[in-house]
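pasting for the record
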Amino acid sequence: MNQDELIDPCSFVIFGATGHLAATKLLPALYHLEAQQRLPDITSFVATARRAWDDATWRAHMEQALRAALGEQFDSALFRRFADRFSYAPGDVTDVETYKRLLAELSKPKAGPCSNIIFYLAIKPSEFVPVAENLAAVGLDRPRGLHRLVVEKPFGEDLQSAQRLNQVLHEHFDEQQIYRIDHYLGKETVQNLIVFRFANLMIEPLWNRNFIDSVQISVCESAGISTRADYYDKTGALRDMLQNHLMQLLTLTAMEPPPALEADALRDEKVKVLRSIRPIARRALHSHAFRAQYVSGIVDGKLAPGYQDEPGVEHGSVTETFVAAKFLIDNWRWRGVPFYLRTGKRLAQQQSVIAIRFKHPPQQLFRETPLEEMDPNWIVLGLQPAERMELEIHARQPGLGLHTRVIQMNAGFRGGDERPIEAYEALLLEIMRGNPTNFIRFDEVEWAWRVIEPILEYWSQERDHIPTYPAGSWGPDAASRLFEWDYQEWRNAV
């Protein structure tokens, strides 16, 4: 390991270690870091959950989860080395006795000194406060300012609850100790966005209202809610996705260049974007936000159930599984450029993209030719399923006559022999290093809630009906009512 890549030795506690997030994201990411020898020898892990297991049972569960997640990448010898780092401490996160056992486990002699402890909260949001309070009750919040608390989304369910949660956490932990994680910020295309914009003189001068017509940010999911009805039916797409993932992508796309690549400098610019978003007036809400819920339809050649038929969904629920919204940023760079955000479940394909549409050339050079109606130029930043950056431009089509075709200039940023890095790998490494750059500061959370609060309040009063769309489609056609101009349309299957 290079000197510039050294990580503070630490203990790493995973609350909710037997849950879905740990099995599918955290454990595979940590396993890959082990494989790459990015974890110091002294780093140890404590898994804690309600199940009354011992270390051997936990390791058998971990092996099964990793085999399922990694397939042929699973290596038995590597797993044995990785598993030796773990111990298991059972208990309920609301019971202070759990934390006494955890304290005893963390106090066992290790191979050397441990400079800090990371507490990863892979648990329900309602359990964040009991964990923070019980850690403090047994002294695991001290020394103040050292240990790190990792909090998954959603951070609150509205502005007031987010502020209350933040107040409670700050009673025991400083802001710089709290790592609010959004795995979209760990995706390579997202991290590349800053370089793409600010390191290329041919791109940044065009990145403004003089050249850009509109911006679309879409996170489309083909899956339904699976077994998450208990969480999702109380949350909906607006809280679950748009308030955090999509709003973070908006700020990175729209922000000004920070004065330095430092955590607070970058986050200051993101907050400025959120503060510049024009508040949505109640009378204008129908032209700025739209919601819908999926009904049964054909997905991958099979009939998929509607949301109302999913196990655990409340009868007559009006929880949205699709949301589209339009935001306007009132600053010098973006005045008059609409940002269209869209997310939904049971859509036609799994894809996450940022698509920047440019204006048409001002000169009518090609009028009265076959090129009179030309498609616009686009920059497309793909996050999933494939990470890519593409520029779409016109070129003359070979042959007789004046015809063009759209060609895609692919700015691939990974060599053929370079392995894609999962978002959680990058973010877990940054937590261990104590680098908060790609994590969310509380004022970002607060202003994101302020932006969507008018939508939340309005929809909370509309409880009688919700529009629908068939599973396997691209969502409701009525979502197109948000567009500023008739020529705009949602960009699908890019």
